[in-house]
């Protein structure tokens, strides 16, 4: 029997509620309805007075979480969509992120952000916010790309004393499956080699890991061995694993679903250029979504984000340099 990505998120929350009395869940419709994506289905009944519906006010949601963390709790807040977290931006970056620096008191909150695009979701339900939050000191930003990481990284996030933005990709919820939840368990801040190779490195995270592996599989028919690095978390960023991969291949493509200006891919290219310029045999390249709001129409959405086809094109140009 297979386990889906969304199953892993639900099971992690169930385990946390069962084993730690300080943990509670807070979000819109997560108790009575089980959440917009059913990530908390049945948990309110299993854990009375531990799973709470909240008002439609993201600012208030994070404010309550910060206050409860000060009082010793470890809340998990579900945003219905990552896009809506912008309404709580002040609480996240000005309160949660800075509180330990200002007072010496940690804020162990975990904010679940259903991230990234799906066909037909449009500009208000498809954004990737990880690069924005990674800009701010004091925040941890994780981007699980596997069923095992969806499970283990949520548990590890709640155990951290830092505020964590847990970016779960909606496209993976029911598409991504595994035989078991108990796969490889790496610590937050350590990347993994999703696919070994020797001719070029793709550094990516979240759902783009799977698109990169598909592209690498296609290029193998032409004799190219592409290495795919799954960052797993973008803050902290495992630069050592990235540089080691670039040292093996000599070429870098930084890949992300977020908008192209700034962000995670820009940071990867900057860091590799700064600290590993001598390792490069070609100028490092980036591939992101297009610099427009995310379109509604499924065909436009497919043309907006990186795909195996566009990744292959970018890699062929890189390999031909």
Automatic annotation (TrEMBL):
Its EC number is 1.2.4.-. One of its GO terms (molecular function) is oxidoreductase activity. It comes from Luteolibacter algae. Residues 3-175 form the Transketolase-like pyrimidine-binding domain. The keyword Oxidoreductase applies. Transmembrane segments: none annotated. This is Alpha-ketoacid dehydrogenase subunit beta. SUPFAM superfamilies: Thiamin diphosphate-binding fold (THDP-binding), TK C-terminal domain-like.
């Amino acid at each position: 029997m297979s386990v889906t990505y969304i199953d892993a998120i639900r099971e992690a929350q169930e385990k946390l509620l069962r084993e730690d009395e300080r943990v509670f869940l807070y979000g819109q419709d997560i108790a009575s309805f089980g959440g917009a994506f059913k990530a908390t289905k049945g948990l309110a009944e299993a854990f009375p007075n531990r799973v709470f519906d909240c008002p439609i006010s993201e600012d208030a949601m994070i404010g309550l979480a910060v206050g409860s963390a000060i009082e010793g709790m470890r809340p998990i807040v579900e945003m219905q969509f990552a896009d809506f977290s912008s309404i709580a931006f002040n609480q996240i970056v000005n309160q949660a992120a800075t509180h330990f620096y200002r007072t010496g008191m940690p804020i162990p909150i975990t904010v679940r952000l259903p991230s990234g695009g799906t066909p037909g979701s449009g500009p208000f339900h498809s954004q990737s916010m990880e690069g924005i939050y990674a800009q701010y000191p004091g925040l941890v930003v994780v981007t699980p790309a596997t069923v095992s990481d969806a499970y283990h990284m949520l548990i590890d996030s709640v155990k951290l004393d830092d505020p964590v933005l847990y970016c779960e990709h909606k496209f993976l919820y029911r598409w991504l499956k595994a035989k078991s939840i108990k796969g490889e368990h790496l610590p937050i801040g350590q990347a993994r080699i999703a696919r070994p190779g020797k001719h070029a490195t793709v550094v990516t995270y979240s759902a783009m890991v799977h698109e990169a592996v598909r592209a690498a599989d296609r290029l193998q028919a032409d004799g190219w061995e592409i290495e795919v690095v799954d960052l797993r978390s973008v803050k902290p960023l495992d630069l050592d694993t990235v540089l080691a991969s670039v040292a093996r291949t000599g070429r870098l493509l930084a890949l992300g679903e977020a908008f192209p200006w700034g962000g995670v891919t820009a940071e990867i290219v900057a860091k590799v250029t700064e600290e590993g310029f001598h390792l490069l045999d070609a100028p490092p390249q980036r591939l992101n979504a297009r610099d427009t709001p995310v379109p509604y129409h499924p065909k436009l959405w497919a043309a907006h984000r990186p795909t195996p086809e566009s990744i292959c094109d970018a890699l062929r140009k890189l390999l031909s340099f």
